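Researcher: Please translate sequence to structure tokens.
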Amino acid sequence: MKDFNELEKMLDEKRFRLLHDELAEENSADIAALLETVPIEKAVLLFRMLPKDLAAKAFADLFSEVQQSLVERLSDKEIFNVIEELFLDDAVDFIEEMPASIAKKVLAYATPETREQINHLLKYPESSAGSIMTVEYVNLKRRMTVAQAFDRIRETGLDKETVYICYVTDSERRLKGVVSVKTLLLSQPEQVINDIMETNLIITRTDADQEEIARLFEKYDLLSIPVIDSEDRLVGIITVDDIVDVVQEEATEDFQIMAAMTPSDKPYLKTGVARLATNRIVWLFVLMVAAMVTGGILEKFEKAIRAMPILTVFIPMLMDTGGNSGSQSSTLIIRGMALSEITPRDFFKVVWKEMRVGLMVGVILSSINFLRVWLTYTSNPEYGAEVMKIAGTVSATLLFTVVVANLVGGVLPIIAKKCKIDPAVMAAPLITTIVDALSLIVYFSLAAILLGI
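Model: Translation complete:
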């Protein structure tokens, strides 16, 4: 990609012919990055210099805010060109992101056929296979020869999103097989499609969740997957470039939920301060209220703290260790569930494994902590014989905290999945709050027993 500043300088100096030639040679993703960098007035001028097909590809890569700003400034003919050149799945994504007024304006300039196809795709539930599929695929018939298949690809392939995989259907549009262009190239011209097509098909349905489809792509190394409706008719395909977007969206959403924020699909620098604050404050409020339980526990054991102030020194260590242990456990389980390595049926396997891991880690940490407390306070006459009891109380609580944190972090995401809640909700902040409360109760209860306070 040529330097952005150099291209912008060409625009300022009105070297339009040279700029046009330079832009025509660039990748659509790089052009989209340029359009998002310059002021919108310059972005419109640059956009108008692009060839129609390149303009559509670059438009599809733009953030929705930039798309909206461009549409508001383009002529009717330019809007028509964009919407007709866009692949249908990109057009649907664009329409879904736009305010109703902009969406109506854009659809008004589309051809009746394009408008009908877009409206049809818009009816599918968000995040379903139907909402991300495209209807632009190459279909062949079983009785075609390889030579006829190539004629069909040449005739229709230019407007299709992919031609690498062709789909074989019958007269009722039911999927019978698939054949790759590689297979066609390596076959004789007179061979019949029915004899060379692949019939062991990986398919999905229009109502399938996009995360499930992403797992199919990963498991079977697919370039595209056919989508069928309730009557087993082929209605579209999903290509790997769409799945890459899905994986990115889902990963971003999980990270945000795990950090106790309301998910947002807008980039950080493109999101307003008020919106960022709104996304964060709801969960922060919930966690703040939950943390009041911890405060209530400390208040309940106020007498114990007064009698033995040294106990407060170890509270941060216990709470932090518990929170970190739970976070480690929940992160592994949530990731394993996202990759389908762990399912709700593995509940007891997870419990058994996390209990053993917690015991192993807890014994090591509590032993080290026992020695540290004993060595630190044994020479202090203020505590005298109580040092061993203090060390025992802290170490026993630490062992309990690590084991419980591992169990809570391991099982809560599975329970959430079973209850059809996003497992990422049961992430570090919530688990930390639960473990903090339990560890404090055990800590002061043991202190009351062992130290007699």
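Researcher: Any highlights?
Model: The chain has three domains: 4-123, 139-240, 268-450.
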